[in-house]
Backbone:
């Protein structure tokens, strides 16, 4: 399919256009509420906030914090009151959604999910049906924060991986470009003016932000370092020492996809719900017998870093399970910095090798 | 391995408990059938594969299917009472409804084991997965060489499958040894820890596979004993347990390095485990 040409939308037309879209579907957008900028359903009185990265990632659009998977109902059997019957039904999601205003890191986070939740014959229908029904519109960054490091984990502040449409801030508004066929079909139906010369300006904006990113060594290619440090308990104790295991890093992370499943009952009725989980919690791997393979937080930190920078890349063509949004750094109550941990792991391995060679 | 994933990965088949066997003071065996007769008729699995049992309102947990695929009148699960879900399972009676998501995970390499001698070493509830493979091999006896079983438990009353032991002890086509940590009046078999009894028995490692399952500490010392008997790591097979939720390699908690015990396991050779980080 030939992609439609780039379009343009002026700042003052944006909100009316989005509200128009919201008539037929759910529109999620970064909205200022309670002192935070969060992805919420857009309403007429919403304060759209496109200044930078939202406080939360947009992953709840595809994997809600808490979602019912199944419902069940017990009932007495007529005639044999000592027997109960049981009915179980699946609860499938189905809402068309326009997810507007994610940054390239967050959009790329969805590709981390896709490799796990949509893996050939193993498709998680809850995630996949949301993904199929959600059009993702990303906005290229213009003003990276100090904690931004997408460029160090294979990302691009002007990139569109995981998105269907790419918006780029230009003088007076945004250019709009289709990235996927789905995005192209959508854009063709919109009454938006042609971008003309603004498309070139958009390219320059994206080039400029690439140059403006904070510099630092790449965090790619750490799989083996993390594994070689696996039995270095002192190292993991030292990097995990100040972690409070609070989980804010997991909950704000656009790639943390681990979940829990629990049953909630009310009398004869109940639901099986899926909720976000936190690998830094002691309960995450606690077994019925009391045995816990990740008993201490050093072991849990080792798995957290290992999963993102070693295990996941080994399983998925070198792609890291980190997109460099920096929320875990900006929001950690103990000022942990995942970039520093990976760099420390690397230099620790180098030190050991030098020591061994001396 | 089985890649026949259901369209909704998390929706169990409804099943009925047909029979409950009280094995020991804390182990019960459940024989269940799927409510949909077509689903029951077309149900296929391989020895070593597991299932998630649901008690709706409490949750789900993973148990090995310990009846062999060569006997499909029911699916059998043996459950040790250790936590919330198993506590509730132990209260269920014949006729009660549960959910079953099965089969999940990989299986014992029973095809590669053809023509070889087999040494089973089971401890406690770890006998359950071995039972599947043992019965499968007994049902296909001509495909396998000498079969040896060492089964141990804390005390004679902690031995599951006690009603099957006389058959296993009496069969001319297998060698069975039993051991307990603590004897009791009338106990005439071994008293001693499994790895020590195994070393005394000294089964030959020539053209042989060893299959072991039990508590982590028992597995560790059993593997040491097997090494001392000359078993190579790729001929030592074990089956692991972890806390699991999804059972299909998504929810992210049962991994050892890059391997998910629910999906890539639960069966591993010791050679495979040694290539993964040591996080048992």
Residues:
């Amino acid at each position: 399919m030939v992609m439609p040409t780039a379009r343009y939308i002026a700042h003052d037309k944006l909100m009316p256009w989005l509200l128009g879209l919201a008539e037929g579907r759910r529109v999620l957008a970064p909205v200022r509420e309670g002192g935070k900028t969060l992805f919420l359903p857009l309403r007429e009185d919403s304060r759209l906030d496109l200044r930078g990265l939202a406080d939360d990632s947009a992953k709840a659009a595809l994997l809600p914090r808490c979602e019912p998977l199944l419902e069940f109902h017990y009932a007495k059997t007529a005639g044999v009151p000592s027997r109960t019957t049981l009915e179980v039904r699946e609860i499938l999601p189905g809402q068309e959604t326009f997810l507007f205003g994610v940054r390239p890191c967050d959009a790329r986070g969805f590709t981390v999910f896709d490799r796990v939740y949509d893996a050939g014959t193993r498709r998680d229908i809850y995630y996949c049906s949301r993904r199929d029904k959600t059009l993702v519109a990303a906005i290229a960054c213009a003003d990276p924060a100090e904690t931004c490091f997408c460029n160090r984990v294979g990302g691009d502040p002007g990139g569109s991986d995981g998105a269907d449409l790419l918006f780029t801030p230009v003088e007076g508004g945004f250019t709009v470009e289709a990235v996927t066929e789905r995005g192209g079909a959508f854009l063709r139906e919109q009454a938006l003016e042609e971008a003309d010369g603004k498309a070139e300006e958009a390219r320059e904006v994206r080039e400029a932000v690439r140059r403006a990113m904070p510099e630092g060594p790449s965090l790619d290619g750490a799989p083996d370092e993390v594994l070689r440090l696996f039995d270095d308990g002192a190292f993991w104790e030292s990097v995990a020492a100040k972690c409070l295991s609070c989980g804010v890093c997991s909950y704000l992370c656009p790639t943390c996809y681990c979940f829990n499943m629990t049953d909630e009952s009310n009398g004869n009725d109940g639901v099986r719900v899926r909720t976000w989980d936190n690998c830094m919690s002691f309960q995450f791997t606690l077994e019925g017998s009391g045995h816990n393979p990740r008993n201490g937080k050093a072991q849990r930190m080792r798995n957290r870093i290992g999963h993102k920078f070693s295990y996941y890349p080994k399983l998925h063509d070198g792609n890291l399970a980190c997109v460099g949004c920096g929320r875990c750094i900006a929001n950690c109550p103990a000022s942990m910095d995942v970039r520093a941990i990976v760099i420390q792991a690397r230099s620790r391995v180098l030190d050991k090798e030098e020591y061994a060679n001396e | 391995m089985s890649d026949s994933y259901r369209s909704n990965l998390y929706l169990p088949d409804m099943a009925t408990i047909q029979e409950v066997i009280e094995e020991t003071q804390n182990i019960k065996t459940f024989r269940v059938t799927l409510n949909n007769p077509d689903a029951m008729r077309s149900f296929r699995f391989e020895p070593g594969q597991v299932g998630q049992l649901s008690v709706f309102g409490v949750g789900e947990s993973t148990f090995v299917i310990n009846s062999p695929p060569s006997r499909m009148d029911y699916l059998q699960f043996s459950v040790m009472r250790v936590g919330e879900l198993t506590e509730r399972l132990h209260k269920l009676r014949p006729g009660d409804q549960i959910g079953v998501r099965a089969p999940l995970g990989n299986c014992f390499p029973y095809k590669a084991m053809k023509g070889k001698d087999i040494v089973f070493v089971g401890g406690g509830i770890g006998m359950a997965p071995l039972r599947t493979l043992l019965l499968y091999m007994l049902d296909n006896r001509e495909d396998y060489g000498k079969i040896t079983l060492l089964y141990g438990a804390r005390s004679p009353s902690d031995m599951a499958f006690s009603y099957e032991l006389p058959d296993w002890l009496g069969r001319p086509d297998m060698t069975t040894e039993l051991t307990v940590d603590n004897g009791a009046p009338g106990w005439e078999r071994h008293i001693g820890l499994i790895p020590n009894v195994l070393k005394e028995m000294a089964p030959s490692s020539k053209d042989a596979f060893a299959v072991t399952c039990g508590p982590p500490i028992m597995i560790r010392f059993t593997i040491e004993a097997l090494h001392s008997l000359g078993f190579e790591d790729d001929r030592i097979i074990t089956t692991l347990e972890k806390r699991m939720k999804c059972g299909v390699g998504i929810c992210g908690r049962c991994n050892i390095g890059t391997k998910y015990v629910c999906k890539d396991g639960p069966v591993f050779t010791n050679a495979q485990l040694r290539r993964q980080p040591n996080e048992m």
About this structure: The longest strand of chain B covers residues 13-22. Residues 117-239 of chain B form a domain with the Rossmann fold fold (CATH 3.40.50.80).
